[in-house]
Amino acid sequence: MISIGGHPQPHSVLGPHPAASGTGSRRTEIRVLRPHADAVSLVFSDGTTLPLSPAEDGLWIGQHDGDPSFYRVRTLRDGRASTIGDPYRHAPTLSEEDRRRIRNGDRDRLWEALGANARPIGTEIGVAFAIWAPRAEAVRIVGPLAETAGAPLGMRRLDPQGIWELFVPDASPGTAYAYEILTDAGTWVRASDPFGRRADAAALTGSVVDFSTHIWRDGAWMTRRAATRAVAQPMSVYQLHLGSWRDGLGYATIAEPLIEHVLGSGFTHVEFLPFTVPAAAGRIRATSAYAPDPRYGTSDELRSLIDRLHRAGIGVLLEWEPTGIHPLSYETAIDFDDAAVRAAVTANALYWFDSFHIDGLRLRSITGLLYLDHARGPGEWTPNIHGGRENLAGIRFLQDLNRAVHRSHPGAVTIAVESGRFPGVTAAPEHAGLGFTLKWNDGWAEESLRYMRRTPVERAHHEGEMTFSFVYAFGENYLLPLGHDETSHRTANLLTGLSGPDAARFADLRAFLGHMWGHPGKKLLFMGQEFGQLAEWTTGTGLEWDLLEQPPHAALLRLIGRMNETYRSTAPLWEYDRDRARFDRRGAPTWDPDVIAFERRDAHGGRVLVISNFDETEKSRLALDLPVEGIWDEILNTDDVEYGGTGSGNDGWIVSRRSAPGDAPQARITLPARSTLWLRYRK
């Protein structure tokens, strides 16, 4: 098994070992595996050499007097000589304390222990490889490293729990490698390094030794972030898929156009869909969850992109999924009952914060972590120890994850996509919550999009689809999503999903977005929706940027920019998203199902009215009850000519008065058809 790298303890055979001596002096025997060599010798630090003799199974053996000393291996094959270090002369690079902490799940910065880490050991520079593969019978490193060595590089199992390790001298950043795992069925399976920090663009199951030289210059941003409470700040997120935002752009080339677009359209953050390479059919697992997709550039080019976004004042969020393939042992499911597994998955999240300075993670599909019966039928799941359906291990994992993120990265954001109505998603773990910063409000998205895709006549009979969210809007810290799940994957784009002629669809979309930006909760919009993308999004096709040459699409983008600008500068629209006491419904003395109006207030007396008319006819001089007397400035009108509308409105302001002492203040207001107005109280 030594000859094929299939021995679990290759160091017990290879490398230096004490040898018997008839004179009683100390001798060392050194064994090297070179199955195809013509001659092999050792070169010592003083320049002397020791020729080795061939033995069976490709072994070469020699002895020298004294204790083991530094040497390198010189191999002659087909007339060519090479001299490299011997991996099997080194002690383990992971201490017993390292291994204990990994097994117990309390090893900080796990990626610095596992994976491929370039480091010196004594006078030799090389790479320490380590992997956790509990079910493996043997593990070997394959690729150029093994080719250079002229023999398989079998790894050493350090303990029964399956931590495997090998220090390879002369390996360096940029070196490609992969693992081959010997399964209990007796077959070898090739896989990338689950802790590899760079994926091999040429080999789907390959990794590359990576070492960052990026110097961060976003210190001012990181300091501000640490002092910021995200839920009390404006947040408007632009969600994008890097590979299809614009054709041909990568980490190094997207920065300038992306920053220009995001700043021009007023978003506070970008959220990238996953950078990691997705799994392909028939592969044992996806490319490492630590490695950005190499099709778009290097890890340091990604760091530079995030650095530039921060220096432009733009936060960076990343979609991240904690479920799926086991990151340690190549299992097909994650056992969150195991503390070591929980720690390993948490470490991956922390790695993106630590190594790439991201500002937040959006966790997809956590419902399966919360409920044992999620997507399972009768007999396919087992109740927990209390007889319930809650997944206690999954809940604990999410609580531990959020504690770890918020403790080590103050100001960072975690966002949960949870469709099971689990209570306390954004409550603190010490109050029986999960500890997320924000919850994805998919209920709002589903209900409001259903309403908007009806005809105006139908909407009058389904007002509750647009207003039911007011009932639960203050139970969590919510983010209102119009993301890729809501606007693609067999779901129509925002514009194409609406009914009627083009002018009506654009007006409806402007009114809807105006209502959304006024609604309690942070905002998220998928790329292309800001200018009215028509084609269904696919990962292999860029956005329809040429649509901006058409006035209605360009006008829609101008509206997004103005809304974001006004939203960010208007505290009532974001300061107390979760405070029911700072929100009130408003209406006309005579109920009109097409008009949805509400008021939002900040801590300093600021007031904003958000009034939407989802009818196809204008409401002229509609009587509206208002909370106070005075002047209200029209700070946004989605029917403005600048945004492609008709220009109907109220000449920039309205006045509310009491008709008699004791009466509620009232104003006469014009509501254009298919429009939303924002009115700010002038103190």
What does this structure look like?
- This protein has 683 residues and is of the alpha+beta class.
- The chain has four domains: 9-89, Immunoglobulin-like (Sandwich), CATH 2.60.40.10; 96-208, Immunoglobulins (Immunoglobulin-like, Sandwich); 234-276 and 285-529 and 556-572, Alpha-Beta Barrel (TIM Barrel), CATH 3.20.20.80; 580-682, Golgi alpha-mannosidase II (Immunoglobulin-like), CATH 2.60.40.
- It is built from 16 helices and 33 strands.
- The strands form seven sheets. It has an eight-stranded parallel barrel with strand order 18-19-20-21-22-23-24-25. The protein has a six-stranded antiparallel beta sheet with strand order 26-27-28-33-30-31.
- β9 (115-121) and β10 (124-132) form a beta hairpin.
- α1 (96-104) crosses α7, α5 (251-265) packs parallel to α6 (299-311) and α7 runs parallel beside α9.
- The radius of gyration is 31 Å and the shape is elongated.
Can you lay out the helices and strands and say which pair or pack?
Layout: E1 15-19, E2 27-33, E3 39-44, E4 49-51, E5 53-54, E6 59-65, E7 71-77, E8 80-84, H1 96-104, E9 115-121, E10 124-132, E11 138-142, H2 144-149, E12 153-154, E13 156-157, E14 163-169, E15 176-182, E16 188-191, E17 207-208, H3 219-226, E18 236-240, H4 242-245, H5 251-265, E19 269-272, H6 299-311, E20 315-320, H7 339-356, E21 360-363, H8 367-370, H9 392-408, E22 413-416, E23 438-440, H10 442-452, H11 456-459, H12 464-467, H13 469-472, E24 478-482, H14 484-487, H15 502-518, E25 522-526, H16 551-568, E26 583-586, E27 595-601, E28 607-613, E29 619-625, E30 630-637, E31 653-656, E32 666-671, E33 675-682
Parallel strand pairs: 18-19, 18-25, 19-20, 20-21, 21-22, 22-23, 23-24, 24-25
Antiparallel strand pairs: 1-2, 2-6, 3-4, 3-7, 5-6, 7-8, 9-10, 10-14, 11-12, 11-15, 13-14, 15-16, 15-17, 26-27, 27-28, 28-33, 29-32, 30-31, 30-33
Helix pairs in contact: 1-7, 5-6, 7-9, 15-16
